[in-house]
Amino acid sequence: MSAVAAPQVPPGRYHGMLQILRFNRPMFAKTGAAALAVILAVAALPLPRPLAILALAGVAAGLLWSASSLLVSHWIYDLSPLSRWDWLAPLLPAPPRRWASLHAGLDETSGALARIFPSEAGTVLDFYDAAEMTEPSIARARRLSLDRAATPADFRALPLDDGSQDAIFLIFAAHELRRPESRRRFFLEIARALAPGGRAVLVEHVRDGWNFIAFGPGFLHFLPRREWLRLAAAADLAVREDFRITPFVIVLVLEKRP
Fold first, then answer.
1. Is the pLDDT confidence value at 88 over 80?
2. How far apart are CA 207 and CA 209, in angstroms?
3. Cα–Cα–Cα angle for 216, 225, 173, nearest 5°?
4. How far is CA 15 from CA 7, 19, 21, 107, 249, in A?
5. For residue 70, what pLDDT band results from cuts at 50, 70 and 90?
6. Residue 123 in contact with residue 158, Cβ under 8 Å?
7. CA-CA distances (angstroms) from residue 159 to 119, 121, 156, 237?
């Protein structure tokens, strides 16, 4: 099993926003090309005025959401306390002796976790499954990521002993499992691996009004908050903390019942 990475060099001031741009570059390029094509068509063709107004309104919405997604990403990932990660420590009743960080191929937290929870027993697992995770952005993120230290893992059978983990961190990763049954099996595995009283920390965007305003139709990639609560209940994990960092990101702290 992989040991955690060494503490990472602090990212640049615009690192988070630029990551979003890199991982979703084709989407931004297509939006720009489509906007240009519509503007040229409206200028060159004798379109009825209502149709021209509707077309330009669509262009404006597409460009606005592209800009807002980058600006909001800069707020969340570069300016807010989120990516400093020190707020994680008070969420656990005691420093974990054994902890695991689970991701789908893009890991920007294990170095920070190793700094906050220095332990020889930290584990990093990559549960990417190409058959389950079909979104182009996650495949692109994996290609661009420099992290190769994580141990590949099957989300259906995590290589963690029963009751072995004091803490498990799921940071912007669990939503990549697109099928409800796959997510349920994943959460059952998390519950199995947690020690009694151990906690799982879930950090996610959610499918709600705030994320629609910020990301437009892209908010459909996120899952509703009620889905995470459903999964916690299915795995018999109690919700001990439920809060937001910025209006766009929720944090759920789930505890295995003794």
1. yes
2. 7
3. 80
4. 17, 6, 10, 14, 18
5. confident
6. no
7. 19, 14, 10, 20
Residue 246 to residue 32: CA distance in whole angstroms: 28
Q: What residue type is 41 in one-letter code?
A: A
CB 91 within 8 A of CB 241: yes
Q: What is the pLDDT of residues 3-46, one digit of tens each?
A: 343 334 446 677 777 777 776 777 777 888 888 888 888 888 88
Run of H or E residues at 242: strand 237-245
Residues 171 and 109: beta-carbon distance below 8 Å:
yes
Instruction: Tell me the residue type at 94.
Output: A
Alpha-carbon torsion (155, 160, 161, 166), positive or negative: negative
Report the C-alpha gap between 225 and 205 in whole angstroms: 9
Compute the average pLDDT of residues 144-172: 88
